[in-house]
Design brief:
The complex is a heterotrimer of chains A (161), B (268) and C (449).
Chain A: E1 4-10, E2 13-19, H1 25-32, E3 51-54, E4 57-60, E5 73-75, H2 77-83, H3 87-95, H4 105-118, H5 124-130, H6 142-158
Parallel strand pairs in A: 1-5
Antiparallel strand pairs in A: 1-2, 3-4, 3-5
Helix pairs in contact in A: 3-6
Chain B: E1 3-5, H1 10-20, E2 24-27, E3 43-46, E4 55-58, E5 61-65, H2 70-76, H3 80-87, H4 92-97, H5 100-105, H6 112-119, E6 123-128, E7 131-136, H7 137-142, E8 150-156, E9 162-169, E10 177-188, E11 191-200, E12 207-208, H8 210-216, H9 223-236, H10 247-267
Parallel strand pairs in B: 1-3, 2-3
Antiparallel strand pairs in B: 4-5, 5-8, 6-7, 6-8, 9-10, 10-11, 11-12
Helix pairs in contact in B: 2-3, 3-6, 8-9, 9-10
Chain C: H1 18-21, E1 38-44, E2 50-56, H2 58-61, E3 66-70, E4 80-81, E5 94-95, E6 101-102, E7 108-114, H3 117-124, E8 128-133, H4 140-143, E9 169-173, H5 176-182, E10 185-193, E11 205-211, E12 216-221, H6 226-237, E13 244-247, H7 263-274, E14 278-281, H8 284-289, E15 293-294, E16 297-305, E17 311-323, H9 329-339, E18 348-357, E19 363-364, H10 371-389, H11 393-400, H12 419-430, H13 436-439
Parallel strand pairs in C: 1-14, 12-13, 15-19, 17-18
Antiparallel strand pairs in C: 1-7, 2-6, 2-8, 3-7, 4-5, 9-18, 10-16, 11-12, 11-14, 16-17
Helix pairs in contact in C: 6-7, 9-10
Chain lengths: 161, 268, 449
């Protein structure tokens, strides 16, 4: 079986590993690199809990063959923690009770980051659509939407709008 | 454990398809293949590196690489019906991954974009070891959706009339499809000159509905002809029952949504 | 003291684990890292009801990466369990690994433990079980008919026997038949609900880790009933609970869907047998098809109602689909019975709450265990009563709402009644205009308003 070396830059760190068979990026992130914020809710692309940012785009790591992202930059929630870019969002989540069991939260955080990267001032409708791929079974979504609205209001306030 | 193949060219990909036959699964975006075909296959061929993600415009028509994603369609295509169909596929992450080529092969009731492509009377082009061949998407589905080679391109002319796409789902966003309808109707002196009606969730594959088209052509687009077309569509379709919806419900929704689509066209 | 002076009541409390939820640092069972971990996959029954003629594991055992294969013969302690046996609910009716018969499609038959999840899955598919298919029953009313297939020998009539040999959990209060004869209207209907999967985002699972060579095992689990899981596992393994250390509490969504107590015993046994850590995680398909759902319910209600809106009698017969085994259904049936006849003061009440066995996936708890199906039926019935007698449904509820000191049909006085105020507050929020006498109503005084 033909094996090959795959290189990734994960959360700023260069990583290399040998893969032969069909291997998902999720398995590499969780089991090889121990980025355990990448949750496994369904392995079917249905829940969004394994969401990561690949070369600036939101993607699902469970359905991504790792060979296809050779040379890419991958960001998980651990990476967003490092850059401290989402501290305000995290505080909003705490203040608005936007998590209960917490299992969807890492995927939500990553998806929200991807949404705000593209659209720093989303309407409620755009927030809803932007998070439509991330399932939460506890909150009923409204607290999450309010947390995003809270961080958007903070950001626009800081820029003097 | 499936061996992972990454061809460097269309020729190499066609060669891999020819030599591995049915033991090969093709992965583009992964949203469908990584769930169904790839885990079962002996060989998996990833085609993301083949650069099939170009969109070309020509005299109103389009040539879409099979690797064009839902997000690309949403952002850069001038046809609102196609944009709307792409918008209905999964959430943002899935739209960044899922390709138009994958959508054509997606299991029903998935495959929303293909419904619009059918209404646009699109063609599909395959690359094989013996060269390229092109067929109408309608014929491709009518003959059982069997791929011959690697799907590289989807071409369609500008809509030959007013094009409306409507989807019945269970949620506003990221909903599996109960049914989808795409209607493209050209009016000629107040009468329907040409009509292309395509249905999703109405059978094993996305289907053109000749009976509904026949009920419209030559008629004024009004209450009577719209009702006739909806009745024909509901009668002619053969939807399935799954966890999303029952055959009973789908049949009724096909009539309802086709009526709405045609009413929208009639209202201009 | 006014509400605003209270320091805790009415004040938001910070959730303790939110700080690590938002950074992704919360450790769920699956985030535990242990070396040399094995993976368990289950071979499950393909029939809803069948006799097991033979179990052949030879091919599975020789499959790549397989370390251990477990059937019912490998169970060292009890072969059957009920999660509430420790608190006196029984009998222990559910097979840990099926023997003699399977009673629902998806029942655990053989556990296969291998080096990787894929190897375990491939080997589990190679287990061969010879079955003789038996007639199955899927509908609660069919199951109660004479001659219906018997689901388990514990209950030859396919319904649970409550303590003191009762067919149903019961309430008898006043004389409903006499009141029906006096009522101006009789309003009757049947309400049914379907099973609902709790669908937690994190599927059921656990990791069992041997600690040293003396048989101690640590189990990291997302069970919602850690103590129940511990007790049941000790019973099935035939070891004292002191040998087992269960670590849990961090659950990626449960909603009642993680009290089946299925993953822990077999995974712990596998760890004991192999001397290596073993993980058993339900796939999403298993979570949807195999883990218990909320029960399906059938609720039959007959009300005797006066022209002025007073409900003077309510008779309810209710059937809960427990599936093939008991699990917590008798408890759910009792709660369901206790919830009836709703938050209303009715002088004559008759309730039978029956737990029925079918060859469906065993059902279990889900948010508002036993209560949700009851509330659904009761409140749709209330609307139907209002419609029948031509009364506003808000007014009907206010007239019948219980007041402080009323006697409930369970023969307990109402304390801290707040139903009237709740309805009035809801009416205000909904912009519902109620006549003045209704606005003046109070839970503290039936004569007010």
């Amino acid at each position: 079986m033909a094996s090959r070396i795959v290189s990734l830059k994960v959360n700023g760190q260069n990583e290399e590993f040998i893969v032969g068979a069909l291997t998902s990026l999720q398995d590499i992130l969780r089991d090889t690199l121990n980025y355990t914020s990448v949750k496994e809710g369904c392995r079917q692309g249905g829940c969004g809990s394994c969401s990561v940012i690949i070369d600036g785009e939101l993607r699902l790591s469970c359905l991504t063959p790792v060979q296809e992202v050779d040379g890419s930059e991958v960001t998980t929630l651990e990476g967003l923690n490092q850059s401290n870019s989402i501290a305000a969002l995290q505080q909003q989540f705490i203040d608005k009770y936007a998590a209960q069991c917490g299992f969807c939260t890492p995927g939500m955080m990553v998806a929200i980051q991807a949404l705000l990267d593209r659209n720093p001032n989303p309407s409620r409708d755009e927030i809803t659509e932007g998070l439509a791929g991330n399932i939460c079974r506890c909150t009923g979504y409204l607290p999450i939407i309010k947390a995003v609205e809270g961080v958007v209001a903070e950001m626009s306030g800081a820029s003097g709008d | 454990m499936a061996e992972y193949l990454q061809p460097g060219s269309l020729e190499e990909a066609a060669g891999m398809i020819a030599s591995h036959g049915s033991s090969l699964a093709i992965v583009a975006g992964g949203t469908s293949a990584m769930r169904y075909s790839a885990p079962q296959a002996e060989h998996v061929m990833g085609v993301r590196g083949l650069g099939m993600n170009k969109i070309e415009h020509f005299s109103g028509g389009l040539s879409l690489g099979s690797g064009v994603t839902m997000s690309q369609i949403r952002e850069s295509l001038p046809i609102p019906a196609l944009q709307e169909a792409a918008r209905g596929v999964g959430g943002p992450a899935v739209q960044n991954m899922a390709t138009i080529g994958g959508n054509i092969f997606a299991r029903q009731p998935y495959g929303d974009v293909a419904v619009v492509l059918l209404a646009l009377d699109a063609t599909v082009t395959f690359s094989t070891v013996n060269g390229e061949h092109t067929k109408k998407l309608e014929d491709f589905y009518a003959s059982g959706a069997q791929a011959d080679g690697l799907l590289t391109r989807i071409d369609c002319a500008a809509p030959g009339g007013e094009l409306v796409y409507l989807k019945c789902g269970r949620r506003r966003f990221n909903s599996p499809t109960v049914i989808a309808v795409a209607a493209c109707v050209g009016l000629d002196n107040g009468k329907v000159g040409n009509a292309c009606i395509a249905l999703g969730g109405a059978g094993k594959h996305p289907t053109r509905c000749a009976a509904a088209e026949k009920a419209l052509i030559g008629e004024a687009l009004g209450v009577a002809s719209i009702r006739a077309a909806a009745d024909q569509a509901a009668g002619a379709c053969s939807p399935g029952t799954d966890s999303v919806a029952s055959e009973w419900y789908r049949r009724r929704m096909i009539a309802t949504y086709l009526t709405r689509a045609l009413q929208q066209i009639a209202a201009g | 003291m006014a509400i605003k002076d209270l320091k805790i009541v009415g004040q938001p409390v910070k959730l303790r684990d939110l700080d690590t939820h938002v950074t992704g640092e919360t450790v769920y069972y699956e985030d535990i890292r242990v070396p040399r971990m094995l993976h368990l996959k289950m071979h499950r029954s393909i029939y809803p009801h069948a006799k097991i003629l033979n179990i052949d594991t030879s091919e599975a055992k020789s499959s790549a990466g397989v370390v251990c294969v477990l059937t019912h013969e490998d169970l060292p302690g009890k072969k059957k369990y009920n999660g509430l046996a420790g608190v006196g609910v029984g009998p222990e009716d559910e097979s840990v690994l099926a023997f003699e018969k399977v009673r629902w499609k998806g029942e655990s038959v053989v556990a296969v433990i291998a080096e990787t999840p894929k190897q375990a899955e491939a080997a589990a598919a190679k287990v061969k079980v010879d079955y003789e298919e038996l007639p199955a029953v899927f509908d609660i009313m069919e199951a109660l008919k004479d001659g219906a297939p018997v689901v388990t020998d514990h209950w030859p009539n396919n319904h649970y026997i409550f303590p003191d040999n009762h067919r149903a959990a019961q309430v008898r209060y006043g004389d409903v038949e006499k009141a029906f004869a006096e009522a101006d209207h009789i309003v009757e209907d049947v309400y049914q609900t379907q099973p609902i999967e709790q669908a937690p985002l994190e599927t059921n699972g656990c990791i069992a880790v041997p600690e040293g060579g003396d048989g101690r095992i640590t189990v990291y689990s997302n069970t919602q009933g850690l103590q129940f899981s511990l007790d049941v596992t000790a019973d099935i393994l035939g070891v004292p609970t002191s040998k087992l250390r269960f670590i849990g509490g961090t659950v990626g969504g449960g909603f009642g869907g993680k009290v089946d107590l299925q993953p822990e015993p077999i995974t712990t046994l596998a760890a004991m047998r192999t001397g290596r850590p073993v993980k058993f995680k339900y796939t999403r398909e298993e979570e949807m098809r195999v883990s218990s759902s909320r029960s399906a319910w059938r609720v039959e209600i007959k009300d005797g109602v006066m022209n002025d809106g007073r409900i003077i009698a309510r008779k309810i017969t209710t059937y809960q689909d427990s599936g093939a085994y008991l699990r917590f259904s008798s408890y759910g049936g009792m709660k369901h019975c206790g919830h009836m006849p709703g938050p209303y003061t009715i002088p004559n009440v008759w309730i039978d709450s029956i737990v029925v066995f079918t060859n469906r996936t065993p059902s279990n708890a889900m948010r508002g265990f036993g209560v949700m199906a009851g509330s659904f039926a009761l409140e749709v019935q209330m609307d139907k009563v209002a419609e029948t007698i031509g009364m506003d449904p808000w007014e009907l509820r206010l007239i019948n709402a219980y007041r402080e000191g009323d006697m409930k049909s369970h023969q307990k006085e109402v304390e801290d009644a707040g139903m009237v105020e709740t309805i009035l507050a809801a009416a205000k929020l909904a912009g519902k205009q109620l006549p003045e006498e209704f606005q003046k109503m109070s839970s503290l005084d039936r004569k007010a308003g």
